Amino acid sequence: MHVADSPEEIQKAAQNIIDLCAYMHKNNIPKWNDQTDETLFNSLERWHMWAVGVKLGIISPTEEEPQIKALPKELREKIFSALKLV
């Protein structure tokens, strides 16, 4: 999934992902399940995963984003777990 890289658009995209998952979970859409969440989450760029983590409260907004290719597996799993609960 490629989304524009401006900070505002990254924040907007992160919120849209959270809103989409929340809607799908709340309305119990038949073809939406944990695998769908995981596919969506794993398709994100690292900085979008980071933004989702910040919006979900997993990462502090004051924490500096690491300049690495991929987020550590443990952090990705925490963000993904929280995303499943929205």
How would you portray this structure in words?
By secondary structure, this protein is mostly helical. It has one domain (7-84). It is built from 4 helices and no strands. Helix 1 packs across helix 3. The longest helix is centred in the N-terminal third of the chain and has 20 residues, at 7-26. The radius of gyration is 12 Å and the shape is globular. It starts with 6 loop residues before the first helix and ends with a helix. The relative contact order is 0.18. The model has no long low-confidence stretch (mean pLDDT 87).
- Look at the helices and sheets and give the structural class: mainly alpha
Which stretches are poorly predicted, pLDDT < 50 over at least 5 residues?
A: none
- Percentage of residues in strands: under 5%
Q: How many β-strand stretches?
A: 0
What is the helix/strand order?
HHHH
Helix content: 55-70%
Q: CA-to-CA gap between the ends?
A: 21 Å
How many domain modules? 1
Number of separate helices = 4
Global Rg: 12 Å
